[in-house]
Design a protein that fits this description.
24% strand, alpha/beta, six-stranded mixed β-sheet, Purple Acid Phosphatase, chain A, domain 2
Length: 375
């Protein structure tokens, strides 16, 4: 009989998205609970034998008691086994979010937190070999014990770990919590469920990262998924099928303004974003004041439409044209200030000069548009 597992990781429940406005941050906070609810629904839909969570269930040891209770409530849609592993964000310390959840009585009977490296037989269907982190960073391979672990004959051996596969992941990620690239082979595993890398990634036929079920950063890494793993039996090669779970699309766009059509491209890009987009939009290059006003209008319109938008124009240099200056009626002392701010964009106070230039231009615009009062 085929064994079906749903593999997920890096929920980071309780994460605070401080880079966004408060209402957007609150929505992204809630989205992580909703992703767990979708996982429960998928587990029921695909009739899985268990759900495996490969670390970082919680974002921090200090999440609130309410957040702990809400997480386990979100899991109620699937009554089969949930096998949970502590990761670097929620390591199984002597006093941890896990011990607090236990004291609260919040952990349902069908949820199996794996706080120690010991074989656990789940539903007489498979044996799980967990490698829980007991501190945030370790520099030894916690999956070493797998090779000598004895499991019931005939049951699939499923590894569950959280860390960085050596020599495979990009060079710039943390080298702590190492995992041998050939662990599935040396430990005779039928499947090794991994967490820590926030995107879905195949290491070999039996070793996969699931990624976070709800995207949480501006990086194209196949996040927002879970993995449906099917095993025809012990020693069979697993079939792995990605399942979409994420709601929000995190998108990053960098546009350099050099010619007039670049501004059109920027505005078209902003206009295409929709309600479930989380956007980081960065603009560099040069623009006249008319172009800057059009760009700001496009940004403001997009910000009201999307879930969240971070706008970065610190590398955009404003170059008012003669027409801009004439339209602003910036003569005399005001014109001198305008020119000084324009020149200072090349100095150490470039960002402040650009912001001041924008503010001055807006003030002059407002004065020009204000109707005169006849006495």
């Amino acid at each position: 009989m085929t064994l079906r597992l749903l593999h997920s990781a890096d929920w980071q429940i309780g994460r605070v998205f401080s880079q966004f406005e408060p209402d957007d941050a609150a929505a992204l906070f809630e989205a992580r609970f909703q992703a767990v609810e979708r996982l429960a629904a998928l587990a029921v839909e695909h009739r899985v034998d268990a759900v495996l969570i490969a670390g970082d269930v919680f974002d921090a040891q200090t999440v609130s008691d309410k957040t702990i209770r809400r997480l386990f409530n979100a899991m109620q849609g699937y009554v089969g086994p949930w096998v949970l592993l502590p990761g670097n964000h929620d390591a199984a310390l002597a006093e941890s979010v896990w011990t607090r959840a236990h004291r609260l009585g919040a952990i349902p009977s069908n949820v199996l937190p794996c706080l120690r490296p010991e074989v656990r037989v789940v539903g007489d269907r498979f044996a799980v070999l967990p490698a829980p982190l007991v501190q945030r960073h370790t520099y030894g391979d916690l999956t070493d014990w797998y090779a000598n672990a004895v499991t019931p004959e005939g049951l699939p051996r499923i590894g569950l770990a959280h860390g960085a596969v050596q020599g495979v992941l990009p060079d710039d990620i943390d080298s702590a919590n190492p995992i041998a690239a050939d662990r599935a082979v040396t430990a005779r595993l039928d499947y090794l469920a991994l967490g820590d890398w926030h995107g879905s990634k195949r290491i070999d036929d039996r070793t996969w990262y699931a990624g976070t079920p709800e995207t949480d950063r501006f990086k194209a890494n196949d996040s927002g998924q879970a993995l449906l793993v099917s095993l025809a039996g012990a020693d069979a090669t697993p079939e792995v099928q990605p399942l979409h779970t994420g709601r929000y699309r995190w998108q990053q766009r960098d546009i350099r303004l050099a010619v007039p059509t670049d501004l059109d491209t920027a505005l078209d890009t902003l206009a295409a974003y929709a309600g479930d987009d989380v956007v980081q939009f960065r603009v560099s290059g040069t623009s006249d004041l008319s172009g800057q006003r059009r760009l700001q209008h496009g940004v403001d319109s997009a910000r009201a439409r999307v879930r969240a938008l971070v706008y970065d124009a610190q590398d955009l240099r404003l170059e008012p044209t003669e027409e801009d200056i004439e339209a602003l009626h910036a003569d005399g002392y005001v014109g001198e200030v305008l020119q000084q701010l324009r020149d200072e964009q090349s100095g150490p106070e470039a960002e402040r000069a650009r912001d001041a230039l924008v503010i001055l231009a807006r003030m002059l615009d407002d004065l020009a548009e204000r109707p005169s009062v006849k006495t």
